[in-house]
Amino acid sequence: MFRGFEFMKQLNGNGVVACVHPLPAQEGAKVLEAGGNAFDAAITTAFVQMIVTPFSCGVGGMVSANLWESRTREHLVIDGYMRAGSLATEDMWAAEYVGEADVSGASLFDDNRSVVGYTSICTPGAVAGLAEIHRRFASMPWAELLGPAIRVAREGHIVPITLARQLVTPSLSGYEPDMLSRINTTEECARLYLNPDGTLLRQGQTIRNPDYADTLEIIAMRGAEEFYRGDLAKEIAQDIQAHGGFVTLEDLNEFETRAYLPPSGKYGAYEVFSNGAPGGGPLLIEALNSLDGVGLGELDPSDLEYARYLASTLQLVNQDRRSYLGDPRFVGKEPQDVLTSQSQAERIREAVLRGVVGGELPEKEDTDTTHLTVVDRAGNIASITHTLGNHSGVVTRGLGFLYNNGMNRFDPRPGHASSIAPRKARLHLMMPAIAFRQDEPIVAWGAPGGNSILGAMVQTFTNVVDYGMNSTKATTAPRIYAEGSKVWVETQVRSDVVEGLRSQGHEIIINPGSLAGSARIQMVVIEPDGNLDAASDPRGEYGVVYARSR
Fold first, then answer.
1. The domain defined by 260-365+430-546 carries CATH number 3.30.1360.120
2. Fewer beta carbons under 10 A from the terminal one: N or C of the chain?
């Protein structure tokens, strides 16, 4: 698609916002139309997402942002991870641990302590992360950028189909609480997200959350400092402490984001940058490094050989996740260096060519996350993923927002890469990415979707650069997802390919719906003529809005 072209630095139009929900995309596009840059629009989009998808993201969650500033050519990742509270200890839950959930990968206890309630809460990093983006790159006032989210929270919004589905989705395993139980964890959560008769909200109903609006107004007027060091921080910490949680006022006071140069890997003529550990970026780099040289682009993406290479590569990369991915402040930088090394890629490539199938099934991650990708007319790029995990069911009285349940992804057993430690960052699989060719950005993309993010990120990218697909075709093409010895396939995948994979030793799981149940890619392709080609994955509620020229 891009071979032989020189890249234009001036883009056509005012820019584009791609995200999971149309309303945040619209509000972000308005910021671009008003003269804001991609980072301004991304901040507004993210905060509006917090209101309309409150179980997926919020001020009580975390953020990972891959950012490109075109004028200075500064490229940074800013991470506002959620971290275990300082009162948490490595062995505090070891004796009561009863195993790992089959589907979500959450640590299991008879009382669900890591999944719901105050003991599941980590120190939130989302507000700090977005504020750091604003400090470094934004052009518009912080309070102005939060205004749309405040308005939507106060005036209300319609329950979208994605939120309605979340409310009625059964427990991921028979052991974990279902959504109704989660919402009933605290009276405040139930008051906000249940009807007066105790039933779940339905698609088309209106949600108003004036308490959330008030909280955001305080953050807008006083800045992110209020969330971490002001009266709001004291209120948050007092409530968590009063109910046996591990996050303290000192954890909030001393919370810091992390800004760093993104790690990268090669795929043909392209260099792909994503976030670092404990995020999922090293896995994306490992997968693309491994597939580079296999000749994937010479294969028909609808044929068995393509599916075999892809499935085995994803299985082996996912296997490495358990061994290497963790907070580098605790496990060191060497594990990430292993994942992104050419020697590791060669090891996987050789195993794939030998026909190796799978390995131990690694733990899975919750899918309740969201993503946004923004490109403006100057070529600035913001690829941002943010999440609550899948929420704790806890709302502090009068504040209106849900807290994360980040403690569910720590290993309660001492001595592991993801074992509990005070102020340790939680492992996650978010991997916001930007790919370059000839030192110019050509694709920015990311997705919510837990474990399936990796496979979706690889396939949509190669669909664009190897097969010349536009963004819509790239995101809607049939996909597989693989780990352990299992391969999940969408119903669009050809039956002869499915049978071929099965005959080679893969355990096949058919996704019951077409274009359903997978990661939801939000992609912007910067074409050689300067046009922006964007797509929001139809597997979820989608929204792509181009900013109009004034």
1. no
2. C
